Amino acid sequence: MIDTNKIEELTELDKKHFLHPTSPIGQQQKEGPSFIFTEGNGVFLTDMKGNKLIDGMSSLWNVNIGHGREEISEVAKEQMKKLAFSSCFATFSNEPAIRLAAKLAEIAPGDLSTTFFTSGGSESNDTAYKLARHYWVLKGKPNKQKIISRTKSYHGVSMGATSATGLKPFRDFTTSIAPDFHYVDHFSTKSLRSLIEQEGPETVAAFIAEPVQGAGGVHIASDGYFQEVREICDEYDILFITDEVITGFGRTGTYFGIDHYGVTPDMMCFAKGVTSGYAQLGGVMISETLHKEFKELSTGTLLHGYTYSGHAMACAVALKNIEIIERENLVENAAVMGQEMLQGFQSLQEKHSMIGEVRALGLMGAVEIVKDKQTNERFESPLAPQVVNEAAKRGLILRSVVFDGQDTLVFAPPLIMTKEDITSLISILDETFTSVT
Ligand code: PLP
């Protein structure tokens, strides 16, 4: 039964009282929410009007195990009844946080074996910058404070994370950013080396990169890129941080995105897929070497911590989420279904004149929209937002990326996608492209 009165009531309340994250404020004010979701089940979301859509973005790149998992709600309920939260400040601890930290050490690349917990991705990135800067102070090199990140990168919206974000509109929104942040071309190790030389390696604390850039348009680095990055960081004594907020926990068909490149960062930020969105949790993992040095060199208190660092209920949810990822082989499934999705994109590319480059790594993909395939010329105003709206009408949630002259659709469906689900996704996309040409 569709309750139109309730929809109208909620729409008005939303318009008046709810300032949405990363939202078109003016349009929101006039039209209200496009969907008020009430239910999630597997790869589907259902709204108050009874529309059922494939969640082609795993909501915000995060619902890796799909929606509506009762096992998770059971664990959350049990943990809440026992101990929802107790502070982990100073020397206090709790079992789910300890067990999760140990589990993460088991699955993370190389010798990343110690975790600082946060409530999300932005906090994780800010933590990494602060730990990196503090590390160099402890090492007696206080001038090593600069953080280098890449163009087209997205690292979140807290002050540090915004400052590191290579997508300029996010930085411009704050009008001023934190000092000592610098950017290099997102694909070029040459530009990383020359910036380090130009700034002076003795002033650079760390380089941060997403193994696959997400919000910037799903850009996949070439083979060898991160191996070279690792070498450059070692050569100049600079910490290498990976932002695995999207790419962690199976998204790209390996446990972590950096696993594709076989190198180990000094720090690794994660969030999103660690709980598949069932609770708010993130963290930074640091290498054994770094942890040892911190312990040896620190004389006082680590003056950095969030109220919810090591939240018992969130950590219990994360443990169950990881158990499900492993039990259902979702990392492998992402690799296999990612190939299916890419082949689907390629078949649409042959059929539709406005589909340019297509790419995917695991279940993280992109489709470029072009006016002319040969020259790669773009439409005067991007079509991707219209495609996203039309796809939603047909039952598929996608996102558009129009930064830096891009006209791109991005995809990140849940890791539980089946072959049939991929076929539905591709067929809705096909109909959508037919409708906009
Ligand atoms: N890093 C990356 C790569 C992200 O994609 C995001 C969010 O989309 C963040 C950091 C920020 O995470 P949060 O929104 O949880 O603060």
TrEMBL record:
Q: Which Gene3D superfamilies match?
A: Aspartate Aminotransferase, domain 1 (3.90.1150.10), Type I PLP-dependent aspartate aminotransferase-like (Major domain) (3.40.640.10)
Q: Which Pfam families match?
A: Aminotran_3
Q: Would I find Transferase among this entry's keywords?
A: yes
Against InterPro entries, the record matches this protein to: Aminotrans_3, Aminotrans_3_PPA_site, PyrdxlP-dep_Trfase, PyrdxlP-dep_Trfase_major, PyrdxlP-dep_Trfase_small
A GO term, aspect molecular function: transaminase activity
Source organism superkingdom:
Bacteria
Write out the entry's keywords from A to Z: Aminotransferase, Pyridoxal phosphate, Transferase
**Signal peptide annotation:** none
Q: Tell whether RNA-binding is among the UniProt keywords.
A: no
The record's similarity note reads:
Belongs to the class-III pyridoxal-phosphate-dependent aminotransferase family.
- Tell me the protein's name: Aspartate aminotransferase family protein
- What organism does this protein naturally occur in? Metabacillus endolithicus
